[in-house]
From TrEMBL:
InterPro entries: DHBP_synth_RibB-like_a/b_dom (IPR017945), Sua5-like_dom (IPR006070), SUA5_domain (IPR052532). Keywords: Nucleotidyltransferase, Transferase. The keyword Nucleotidyltransferase applies. Gene3D superfamilies: DHBP synthase. This is L-threonylcarbamoyladenylate synthase. One of its GO terms (molecular function) is L-threonylcarbamoyladenylate synthase. NCBIfam families: L-threonylcarbamoyladenylate synthase. Residues 15-203 form the YrdC-like domain. The keyword Transferase applies. Its EC number is 2.7.7.87. It comes from Marivirga arenosa. It is an enzyme of class 2 (transferase).
Length: 206
């Protein structure tokens, strides 16, 4: 069965559509959705079946996945992160929501999610109402990873209709939130002192 194609507006996402998407996520759906950078591939991090399917779509084993979580706000983060230092908290508070991913030391909840000995986790709070409203309604973060274009020039797809054509037989829902960007988030490794930018992306660190 082909994926659903659901149009949402970032300024005011339709609550009924958000509710439907969340119900599908709870049932194990894998969803492609917009962020403040590139389009992401995600699922409910509490649903093992969904994680397995996401890894299948991505072509990787569950234990090998580099975990990033889309969080609603800073309050979610302590559930999955240990030893969050005051300087790191201040940097995150100053820069989120925004187009940045913070690599942090994972606590014991994260290995349980994927049955892997993961020592770190990436945390994102995108400046886009669509994923934020989904996470709010879901009640826990989304596992998130990027989707890539099979193209030597354009690395990340930006057109939701083209994304749908490429992924409609692989995922359960593609959300059309308008054209995405083709530059990923800036990645900051906060497991070292001082914190280090390991990928220059769209976000500038304040």
């Amino acid at each position: 069965m082909a994926a659903e194609f659901i149009k949402l507006f970032e300024e005011n996402p339709d609550p009924r559509k958000i509710k439907h998407i969340v119900e599908r996520l709870k049932d194990g759906a894998v969803v492609i959705y917009p962020t403040d950078t590139i389009y992401g591939l995600g699922c409910d991090l509490t649903n093992r079946k969904a994680i397995d399917k996401l890894c299948w779509v991505k072509g990787i084993k569950p234990g090998k996945i580099n975990l990033s979580f889309i969080c609603e706000d800073m309050s979610h983060i302590s559930d999955y992160v240990k030893n969050l230092s005051t300087p790191t908290f201040k940097i995150m508070k100053k820069n989120l929501p925004g187009p940045l991913t913070f690599i942090l030391p994972a606590n014991s909840n994260v290995p349980k999610i994927v049955n892997a000995n993961k020592k770190t986790v990436g945390i994102r709070i995108p400046n886009n109402n669509i994923p934020i409203e989904i996470v709010k309604s879901l009640g826990n973060p989304l596992i998130s990873t990027s989707i890539r274009e099979d193209d030597d020039i354009v690395e990340y797809p930006t057109d939701p209709e083209k994304i749908y054509e490429n992924f409609k037989n692989l995922v359960d829902i593609v959300i059309d939130g308008g054209y995405g960007k083709n530059i990923p988030s800036t990645v900051i490794d906060c497991t070292v002192e001082p914190a280090e930018i390991i990928r220059e992306g769209l976000g500038e660190v304040q």
